């Protein structure tokens, strides 16, 4: 996901000048052990009773550009599981 700064932005001391593009690297967030312990482990049970922290789960993006196919995708996955 990439975004363009429409004005100078200061985030935690880092200046992102107007016109620069910023890449949101969702994989780095999803593989961060601070949010997902032992992220390399295949462990579907990690989602049991798991409450995501805002901004740490972005498979379909977020905000006004959230993937409009998200619900369709999840529905299709559910159907495949029971065929
Ligand atoms: C596993 C399946 C899918 C994944 C992981 C996925 C992921 C994403 C992500 C991360 C974005 C946000 C991009 C951004 O913010 O720059 C996005 C946008 C979008 N997705 Fe998906 N997507 C999936 C399936 C689909 C399907 C099935 C459709 C349509 C039937 C779809 C249509 C779109 C469209 C049109 C956008 C652009 C929305 C906008 O810019 O306003 N996606 N998708």
SSE order: EEEEHH
So how many helices?
A: 2
- β-strand number: 4
Ligand list: protoporphyrin IX containing FE
The gyration radius over C-alpha positions equals 16 Å
Give the distance, in angstroms, between the N- and C-terminal Cα atoms: 33 Å
Low-confidence stretches: none
Which shape, going by the Cα principal axes?
flat
Spatial ordering of strands, largest sheet? 1-4
Nearest-integer average pLDDT: 92
Please give the share of residues in helix: 10-25%
Could you tell me the strand content as a percent range? 5-15%
Cofactor: heme
Main location: membrane
Family: Belongs to the cytochrome P450 family.
GO cellular component, one term: membrane
Describe the structure.
- This protein has one domain (2-81).
- 20% of the residues lie in helices and 14% in strands.
- The chain contains 2 helices and 4 strands; from the N terminus they run ββββαα.
- It has a two-stranded antiparallel ribbon with strand order 1-4. Strands 2-3 form a two-stranded antiparallel ribbon.
- The longest helix has 12 residues, at 70-81.
- The N and C termini lie far apart (33 Å).
- 0% of the residues are buried.
- The mean pLDDT is 92.
- Bound molecules: protoporphyrin IX containing FE.
- Protoporphyrin IX containing FE binds next to helix 2.
Brief digest:
The protein is of the alpha+beta class. It has helices at 26-30, 70-81; strands spanning 2-4, 9-11, 14-16, 21-23. Protoporphyrin IX containing FE is lined by residues 1, 59-61, 65, 67-69, 72-73.
